[in-house]
Amino acid sequence: MTTPSPDADQPALIEADTPAFRRANVALFIGGFATFALLYATQPLLPELSREFGVGAAWASLAVSAGTGAMAFMLIPASILSDRYGRVRLMKWSLALAAVIALAGAFVTDFTQMIVLRALLGAALAGLPAAAMAYLGEEISPNAQGRAMGLYIGGNALGGMSGRVLGGLLADFGSWRVALAVLGVLGILAAIAFWRALPASSHFRARSVSPRAVFDDARVIFADSHLRWLFACGFLLMGAFFGLYNYAGFRLEAPPYNLAQSAIGAIFLLYLMGSLSSAWAGRLSDRYGRHNVLWAMMVVALVGLTTTQFEHLLVVILGIALYTFGYFGAHSTCSGWVGRRAGERRALASALYLSAYYLGSSLVGTFTGLAWDGGGWTGLTFAVGGCLLAALGLALWMRAMTRKHA
Length: 406
Prior knowledge:
Layout: H1 19-39, H2 46-53, H3 57-60, H4 62-85, H5 87-104, H6 111-125, H7 127-139, H8 142-173, H9 176-197, H10 211-223, H11 225-253, H12 261-266, H13 271-288, H14 290-307, H15 313-342, H16 346-404
Helix pairs in contact: 1-5, 1-8, 1-9, 4-5, 4-6, 4-7, 4-16, 5-6, 5-7, 5-9, 7-16, 8-9, 8-13, 8-15, 11-15, 11-16, 13-14, 13-15, 14-15, 14-16, 15-16
């Protein structure tokens, strides 16, 4: 079954469980997978990079934060380019360029070069997430968008997990240079597969990219209070998530755990929980409404964070698993809500959401590093928990407003 588009001359929107739906999902799953595998490959390597270049934990975190920060700043320009030149073209070239830059990171000779290349990587990668959410909103039938978004976010989660796990394993059996080189080559292969699999846009219509048109679109977007608070939720959620995973490695390599790099990297296998929760939350959102799913996922994340306060390793891992499950479910719900609510301005709205999201990872990620340096895991938990509680308050407010106007 297909959904007729508003214009009879337009192709039908893509319905769930059709060959076109599967092709689009496979392509964007690969794209999301590669994006976040490349972006977060250095996260399990932070203790090793800290020793190699003689820098502290908060400074070493720039090997990740420089990439996410550059991505945050480039998402809005990338969304404007996608409005003018098309979603598919931008996504293809962004992923190809980023894979080459990622490979170059294996050959740096000092930490400054590392930071510069990671920033360039994040800037190049911005084109894919900036256009992907708009592509799904334009090409997929509304009753299948939650599922498609959940699968895309699931690919992001699996890619982030795989980049971290492979990075840790390869660093243990070779070095951090070997890890970055192998992941760069895998990124090039993923870019080739993405180019071949992604269906062409059927519903893209170029929009004006004049400063006045962009300003007018931004003004309409920020006039919507729900969108403003969804952007704030993205900032807080990603900052909290990034903070916990950034410094978990420092906790787990120290007594009483004394885990090796490969074992620390294996902690990121818990991202599988994120892949499951993203797809599940998408289905729940299509059925019960995003306002009823978002706050519940945040509560799950808070329960998981609290559980990590215990000392037993298995209990800590369980807490991180619950935290990951709740976080990805909440992020998937927020992402889908932004695309649905923004309408024809979904590319710019998605870019604004993701800009806030990645700024959260850079700013809150660094701030939580100071909390770790000053108060250890307890200090980190208070900082991360404060972000989650603030996001939960916003989610409950949006739920109340949605029910009021239903």
